[in-house]
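Dear colleagues,

As part of the handover before I leave the project, I'm documenting each prediction I ran so the next person doesn't have to rerun anything. This entry is a single chain, and its sequence is reproduced below.
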Amino acid sequence: MSARGVLYVHSAPAALCPHVEWAVAGVVGVPVKLDWEAQPAAPGTYRAELNWQGAPGTSGAVASALRGWQRLRYEITEEATPGCDGVRYSYTPTLGVFTSVMSACGEVLVPEARLRDAMRRAREQQLDLAEELDRLTGRSWDEELDPFRHAGEGAPVRWLHAAG
C-alpha cells in the first residue's frame, strides 16, 4: 500500500536547505533535491514543496526527522489510506509541532475524546471553551504559517517516489 502527501518547507535559512534534503532522503530512501526559492515572507530564507509517495507513516517519519530545527517552518501532509486517517504536521520555531487528523479536503478533524476532554477541562478549570477549541484545531499554527503559505502560491511542484 502506498500513501501520498506534500512537504511544504515554508522557510529555511540557506545553511539548512541541504540538511533538510538529507533528512528527507534518509526517511524516504532515495536522494532528494528540492527546488528552493526565496521566501518573500521572511527575507533571507527559502521555501520548497515536494509531493511524495511512499509507505503509510512517511509524513510522521519526516516530521520527526525535522522536529526541533529552530529556524525551520514546515508542514507535511499525508492523505488517508485504507486503515489510516489523513494527517498533517505543522512546525514553527515558536510553537513547536502540531499534529492533526485531516479530512479529504484538508480540514482538521478533532476526535470525540479530545473534544470531551476540552469540554471537561474548560468546565473544571474555568477555561474558555473557544480557546480550548482553537488549541485543538491548531489555530496558532495556522495564524503563524498563513503569511508563508500565501507567499508560496504559484510555486512549482515536484513529485518524489520513495524506494521500497
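DSSP finds five helices and eight strands in the chain. The first helix runs from residue 17 to 28.

All the best with the project,
I.
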